[in-house]
Amino acid sequence: MQPEAIHLGKSSSYPKKYDPSVLVAVPRYLNREHLEIKENDLPFSGVDVWHAYEFSFLTKNGLPVVGILKLIYPATSQYLVESKSLKLYLNSFNMERFGFDPEEGISEVSGIIAADLSKLLLCDVRIKVFDHTCKENATGFEEYTIIEDSLSTENLLCNVYNENPELLAETGMPDEIKWGSHLLRSNCKITFQPDWGSVYLHMKGQKLPAPESFLRYIVSLRNENHFHEEICETIFKRLSDRFQPDYLLVTCLYTRRGGVDICPVRIKPSETLPLRLCSPEILTMPTFRR
Predict the structure, then answer these.
(1) Is the distance from CB of 127 to CB of 88 less than 8 angstroms?
(2) Per-residue pLDDT tens over the stretch 210-250
(3) Half-sphere exposure at residue 50, Cβ-oriented, CA atoms within 13 angstroms
(4) Per-residue DSSP letters for 79-141?
(5) Same domain, 153 and 268
(6) What domain range includes position 84?
(7) Is 131 among the residues known to form the active site?
(8) What angle do helix axes 228-243 and 211-219 make, rounded to 10 degrees?
């Protein structure tokens, strides 16, 4: 059985007690082989950013504590955590008691989760729990041009709904682009349920994609059956191979499902990750699709 199929597509009861055994690690190479991405020679760096909006536990006197949990781990890790297993794991805290007050409980629970996930994924996992007093920050993607709003789409023909990099055409001019699109849709690799989201592209180079071709390419992902991380890496790899940019950043902000969203970020060179999204200490406002 594929590790990602242990929980996905099956009826699962939520654990009534803290249970790290439900966590499932999926080797990243399984989702990279078809792209010819080699683990010892990754064409990118980056992170996976997760937000769990329904996180809760009890204090030692039984008072519920609620918050938004943000977790971040590197795209260079050998494994990713399977999403349903993480949801089951986080829900296993719901009736458990930690700390004599919310602040002490949050500190204790954050340490447990960071340790469990770091052990599972064999990498450093950073955790932060935000309560209702936290002020949300802008995402940092506000200055990106939403590509479907900037084009005359009434004459734009879209009839390819399986991923096709041949749709990507050059402008023939060097420049810098910051584009976004809310038309991203793909499907879960195991359950085939639709996954909705937004994609943001920041790119510099001598060759750049024509805006109509980039939009057609994003639309072509509509019937693809892959995990969120793999979709982001597919977009990155196709743009990198086709245009060989000097700088490339691809961020996919997916709509939450089951109270959890996944926001993979892939970049090269590595020194300029989106600060707000990729900082565990900052909670950003949900975007349109999130």
Answers:
(1) no
(2) 999 999 999 999 999 999 999 999 999 999 999 999 999 99
(3) 28
(4) EEE-HHHHHHHHHTTTT-B--SSHHHHHHHHHHHHHHHHHHHHTS--EEEEE-TTPPPB--S-
(5) yes
(6) 3-130
(7) no
(8) 150
**Residues 48, 195, 232, 263: which is the catalytic one?**
195
CA distances in angstroms from 122 to 74, 173, 284, listed in the order given: 11, 43, 27
Whether residues 239 and 196 share a domain: the answer is yes
Q: Are residues 157 and 247 in the same domain?
A: yes
In a domain, 250, yes or no: yes
251: pLDDT strictly greater than 80 = yes
Identify whether 150 is part of a domain: yes
Beta carbons within 10 angstroms of residue 236's beta carbon: 27
Let me know if residue 149 belongs to a domain.
yes
CA distance 219 to 216: 5
* pLDDT on residue 50: 98
Determine whether 19 is an active site residue: no
Please check whether residues 118 and 188 belong to one and the same domain.
no
Residue where a domain stops, chosen among 100, 130, 160? 130
The tally of domains found in the chain comes to 2
In the predicted structure, residue 164 carries a pLDDT above the cut 60 = yes
For residue 1, the model assigns a pLDDT of 53
| Residues 236, 272 contacting (CB under 8 angstroms) | no
Question: Catalytic pick from 48, 188, 263, 278?
Answer: 188
Last residue of a domain, one of 130, 161, 182: 130
Please indicate, yes or no, whether the overall pTM of this predicted structure exceeds 0.90: yes
- CATH number for the domain harbouring residue 240: 3.30.1130.10
- Residue 13: pLDDT over 80: no
The rounded distance, in Å, linking the Cα atoms of 167 and 221 is 11
Residues forming a β-bridge with 58: 64, 97
For residue 5, the model assigns a pLDDT of: 47
Place of tokens 């399986």: 162
Check if the beta carbon of residue 35 is closer than 8 Å to that of residue 215. no
pLDDT, tens only, 51-65: 999 999 999 999 999
